[in-house]
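Review session, final week

We close the course with one last complete record, chosen because it touches almost every idea we covered. It is Bifunctional NAD(P)H-hydrate repair enzyme, a protein from Alteromonas naphthalenivorans with 499 residues. Go through it on your own first, then we will talk.
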Amino acid sequence: MLDTQLTSSLSYKLFRADQVRENEAEAAAQSGCDMFTLMQRAGGAVFEQCQSLFANSDVYLILLGQGNNAGDGYITALNAKKAGKKVHVCAIEPDRLLDGDAGTAQKQWVDAGGSIKPFDVALIEKADVVIDALLGTGINSYIRNEFADVIDAINDSSTPVVSIDVPSGLDANTGQSLGRCVQADVTVTFVGIKPGLVTGAGKQSCGKLVYADLGVGKAFQTLAKASATLLNIDHFKGMGPRDVHSHKGTYGRLLCVGGNRGTAGAIRLAGEAALRSGAGMVRVYTHEASTIQVSAGRPELMVTSSHLDDALAWSSCVVIGPGLGQDEWSESVFTAVLKHCQSENKPIVIDADALNLLCKQSTAYTLEHCVLTPHAGEAGRLLGVSVDDVESDRFNYARQCSQRYHAVCVLKGAGTLIDNEKKTWVCRHGNPGMATAGSGDVLSGILGALMAQGLSVDIAAKYGVVLHAKAGDDIAQLYGQRGMIASDLFDAVRALINQ
């Protein structure tokens, strides 16, 4: 979840940590303040969030390292002390005098009668809230043991944790844990939202993400170019009303290919999702053993297990992969579909087992209007790297995937990424309840339906991902995350697409 204290486009832009460090002083100068003023505003914003989210907290534990992040922590401590809170400040090196603005903040704390103690694990359980100001955005190597021990103690506790700018131990650009990482309940990030905070494990580590521009956001935006953009449902106008004189052919002819023996459910989900997303006609080409299971209970789906060439010629867009398998039948179907889409320049969504088959034949096809929808494991196979590699730098590997295959890559997971070789977008919606069988098949059907209705590949990928994720959020809000199944999304998608 992301809150923002700035209602401008900046709250949807992502900036690398080095961009913030290199430009924040100039942004401050252009905004009529200095860096220490920014530190004061940062500490004030953190305390304000603590007051708002943990209103009854009277005992604060501030954990400090040595850099500017520690300076923000000292200012937070001052704000809490002035508000009458009981404040414990513990530093990794309690006797060390800090330099620069952090040193000024440290001196102000001491001058106000505050003390600086070595870390005491017992204080965590006595505190109502822990402020994590151990490590900032500058760290990019594995953390030292003295920090790791404190982070372990924080994570072993049930006391709420608020991280300053970034959870300590998290790479702010990639979202990778650097050996140990604070699992925060809230993270208050400043000046620019860092990409590692909104996808993969980083999204989990941040908890609730709060953005504060510290009064320099507009100036900063003129100095730095965003590395990616956050998307939510409000960025899209929806499909709009249909023409009175339109007919089913107006809204596309989508062919969904998959459903090998024993996996009929996957292609059925994709096909029905496409119908619920507004496709005019949906035909399913499936294994002969799956035709009854696919068509049963959904007569609006046209189902066939023969004459693939005729089905391809009929279609205006293709989805291939859900339940496809990787046997001889699958390979022959895959080859026929991709050859057709290449020769006819036809839009295609490649998902699931079709991605695994694509790995083996990637040099054989050039597809101009193509969306790939891998999870981390499938992306790893497409690129010849491990799952851990992909999850350690999702932005990098989403871009590599889109570039290698000259396609739009939808890298699924927490904070799904959409990359078109030139730009990257991150979906703000979605929840762990969607980690269930068939959810990806529904997404493929949605994407295919949008492309069949004439949306460009880029727009269809962005809108489709957001629709799918927001539908999951709407269902979770109604019934909870546990027990959500893929077909639950149909009605929610239909409602959203008609807004």
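Two points worth writing down before the exam:
The mean pLDDT is 95.
The first strand starts at residue 2 and ends at 4.
Good luck, everyone.
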